[in-house]
């Protein structure tokens, strides 16, 4: 029973998912003995200290030692999965959400279902590679081999079974322009003579693709870096080489000022946001806005999102090792409003909602998964500690809804009952740039973007933002994919 969290037992009969492991709370490697140094033996040196390039290691260590609920979940995850990856550690800032996430991922990857275990991990590799997320690709390459996957498939998509190759187009469209998914894409996958998918298999495929596309956003959005034991997590630094890095493995001169310097001059940032929220609530109470004006504000926000672009230099990523797992590397995100000759109408959320339509369809074709996904969406959306930075007893629902709806707006999804004018009031330009980058082009996310928004807020609050971005993005992908399946069925 998924609701009871199968993760709570280490005697699972499901597929193995063990990975090489070093407990991350003791990530510092002991110094080599004098004789080894004299011999010039290279010391495997962590490329960074801690799970994130953006968040100081000490804050995550304090979380692990100070939050009893988080610590229990982390121990259970390690006992069951045989490893504790950096994604799990960062989510540990929010134990209630982490519990739901671990249940869902366990069910998707380790509980009996329509797809063979090696297929599941290969699909995860395809999805993560589509966003150039080598971190997730490498994790699932290891898992793929652990569950008996054929190493030859890892040579590239052309070496995988033809049935998996048929997913290439849907993978890239869902990752970058999900509004272009149609029932024709679904029917081609279902009706292929030699390599067709069953409807139950296809539902699991689509959920896995959406899950790992969105998890790539979380990985880049939080600056997650490889564990020290992985090939990308350490380097054979010569013992005589000086260590130029700071606490998180980034050269001091790269970022210059300390975080305390960055928040100078932002004393009133939070107070200003609180005042805007108060004024917006008063306007809600005083008078309503017509449906015509609501529609106009949505169109205005959708068009304005075209001009939300980063002025920073893009980070360079070596994609040679992962580009073989997907086709057409030139295919990327394109703004919803820029669909050229192909007319794509706005997706009215009231016509096809997750709660009334998507949930029941997934649960019918892939039992229990609809319930697990719904709990995960609700946990991210409703999660609150009633705090904002140093302020307590704050109702943050307005802000959370603005973030969620802004993401859906970029994907062409409109809520008739929402005033999109609130988005411009609550989300400043730096925040919008960060959101759009993490959701639409996650590999381009930089530490500068992360540092530039909500400068007085805690890192745990920024991790919460990333949970919202991840789940809103996943739900948007699923709404388009499930709408296409519904049209096929009708």
Summarize the entry for a quick read.
By secondary structure, the protein is mainly α.
Task: Describe the 3D structure.
This protein is mostly helical. It has 22 helices and 6 strands. The chain has helices at 34-38, 57-66, 68-81, 86-91, 95-110, 117-130, 134-146, 162-165, 168-176, 183-191, 199-221, 252-255, 259-262, 269-286, 291-304, 354-365, 369-382, 397-410, 421-426, 429-440, 447-452, 459-489; strands at residues 43-46, 234-237, 347-348, 387-388, 391-392, 413-414. The strands form 3 sheets. A two-stranded antiparallel sheet has the order 1-2. The protein has a two-stranded parallel ribbon with strand order 3-6. The chain has a two-stranded antiparallel ribbon with strand order 4-5. Helix 18 (397-410) crosses helix 22. The protein is globular. The relative contact order is 0.14. The model is unreliable at 1-33 and 234-265 (pLDDT under 50).
Distance between the termini: 31 Å
* Total beta strands: 6
Instruction: Outline the low-pLDDT stretches.
Output: 1-33, 234-265
Give the percentage of residues in beta strands.
under 5%
Count, helices = 22
The overall pLDDT average reads 81
